[in-house]
Amino acid sequence: MDVIELRSDNAAGVAPEIVEAIAAANTGTAIAYGADDLTERLHDVVREVFEHDGARVFPVTSGTAANALALSAIVPPWGAVLCHETAHILNSEGGATSLLGGGAVMRGVAGDDFLMSPDSLRRALDSVGWGDPHYSQPTALSFTQPTDRGTIYSVDQIAALTEIARERGMRSHLDGARLANALVSLGCTPAEMTWKAGIDVVSLGATKNGGLSAEAIVVFDDHASDELVYRTKRSGHVTSKMRYQSAQLIAYLTDDLWRRLATNSNDRMRELAAGLAEIDGVELLNRPDVNMLFVRLADEHIDRLEAAGLLFYRMGPGVIRLVTNWSTTPGEIERALTAFRS
Ligand SMILES: Cc1ncc(COP(=O)(O)O)c(C=O)c1O
């Protein structure tokens, strides 16, 4: 039976352009540990794409490493990272930020649609005992963009929240494991979504959008960059064959490949959601702003969809998660909709 992959964009393969970039990098030898020409060029590419002459980039192998390292560079061990209470760093990374942050804690902030709001952030900040060593001192704010529930912050929402954080001397991080999906959805530039909106450090994901264990930390803050030189090494992320990660990231960010791949996944999700919205007994739980949709339907129908070859995650009784990816085809969406209709 032909299955239709809607579990996760992590389940997708590697984009052909990325495979070609790895093959092209696979000639001759190159100096190890990121001192190679490709990694050097990656810095230029990142500076151009993010329109920031001082940006520095640190390739790493997972999104969890990118987040934990990025945050460790902007929180002291006695510090706290504020994030939405549903954030991936808080709920799905096994406390990696606390480990690499030397004991720093994460504190969840409430907010509708899985987004922190200025009011909820102010309330959280007002409840801190500032200067009192009994309280972890918030020094970083972390956004998940898009969120784990498929919602996105507008650029103005990010800017408003980073400004509140900056008033308290905090710096801001953006978990962009799916940054490209948010960028194409909002139609803004990488600069507008990040440093121009007050973000100091970005976890830039590529793996979910066609890369092969290639993620990067993009840093606009010199102090954090200086820290990351040592922190990436001590955590085992200065890989000897970094040139293969750098080659992927260069290809990813060149000629809009990242946007093209993310446009496919977002467009397929929009088609899927539009079709599902017309089927009785199927309730959409979020707007299809990116490539992720949560859907409520009867458990016996969920069982039948599974039997028909649809792959998805069950989120509890009567709720499933559907995720499209860079390689999802219109034909697969049509077949998925046929299964839902029947
Ligand atoms: C929003 C978000 N951030 C970070 C990660 C972590 O990425 P990785 O699984 O590569 O560690 C994920 C993975 O699913 C994610 O969804």
TrEMBL record:
UniProt cross-references to InterPro entries, sorted A to Z: ArAA_b-elim_lyase/Thr_aldolase, PyrdxlP-dep_Trfase, PyrdxlP-dep_Trfase_major, PyrdxlP-dep_Trfase_small
A Pfam family: Beta_elim_lyase
Domain Aromatic amino acid beta-eliminating lyase/threonine aldolase: 5-299
UniProt keywords, alphabetically: Pyridoxal phosphate
Superkingdom assignment: Bacteria
Family: Belongs to the threonine aldolase family.
Database matches in PANTHER family: L-THREONINE ALDOLASE-RELATED, LOW SPECIFICITY L-THREONINE ALDOLASE
Record's protein name: L-threonine aldolase
Lineage: Bacteria, Bacillati, Actinomycetota, Acidimicrobiia, Acidimicrobiales
